Amino acid sequence: MSAPLLTLAGVHTHIGPYHILQGVDLQVPRGQLTMLLGRNGAGKSTTLRTIMGLWRASAGAIGFAGASLRGVGTADIAARGIAYVPENMGIFSDLTVRENMLLAARSGPMDGARLEWIFTLFPSLKQFWDKPAGKLSGGQKQMVAIGRALVEPRQLYMFDEPSKGLAPVMVNSMVAALRALKEQGATVLLVEQNLAVAQALGDSVAVMDAGRVIHHGAMAQLAADADLQQRLLGLHLAAAPAPAPAGEGA
């Protein structure tokens, strides 16, 4: 396994009176796509938000690229090279697709070659370049959110359930884009409920329950063990067909 780019050790997070993360231990290997799986309410989204500093860890260590993220502000965490796409996408509905992308280009003007690469992944971004992002379909908004995360190279990309609520053809487009990002050697932490997506993309996997990581290992190992899937997730990967490469739909 590659050396970890991101490490969480004994991380606890309280939100008001609620103790959500209860000692999370997690390693995200450099250059791999790590799946973060678990039932609803297991603490997956809270883990991503805690890494980004949107919610502050009350105990434990968060290390990224050899430095601590504990106590660092969200803007500074992003500036260190972490792109984060939340479950609600976080796009600016009143701004055009172009303006949404420009805001993500922290280092200056958008790189033309990289932008053309993004257009090959998501042709609708070019088609709706000057239209308000809020007027797009749910799937197209998700493409804007992912495209915005890709507009500059980052050390780590974190996506929170990017396939949620998408039509199958849009899921296929999203999987193809993440596969292309993975083939470039990117480090990705991906929260998913769609186990077929997890199977199609994951190198390593961590499974959460009740605010802790209860299993970690190779995604292929989990995909091959139906009993382990049932015990950890209450589901079987074989129950859902894997996404197939497809063109982007509406």
UniProtKB/TrEMBL annotation:
InterPro entries in the cross-refs: AAA+_ATPase, ABC_transporter-like_ATP-bd, ABC_transporter-like_CS, BCAA_Transport_ATP-bd_LivF, P-loop_NTPase
Protein's GO biological process: L-amino acid transport
Keywords attached to this entry: Amino-acid transport, ATP-binding, Cell membrane, Membrane, Nucleotide-binding, Transport
Chain ranges of the ABC transporter domain: 6-235
SUPFAM superfamilies cross-referenced by the UniProt entry: P-loop containing nucleoside triphosphate hydrolases
Molecular functions per Gene Ontology: ATP binding; ATP hydrolysis activity; branched-chain amino acid transmembrane transporter activity
Gene3D superfamilies: P-loop containing nucleotide triphosphate hydrolases (3.40.50.300)
Similarity section: Belongs to the ABC transporter superfamily.
Protein name in the entry: Branched-chain amino acid transport system ATP-binding protein
Organism from which the protein derives: Rugamonas rubra
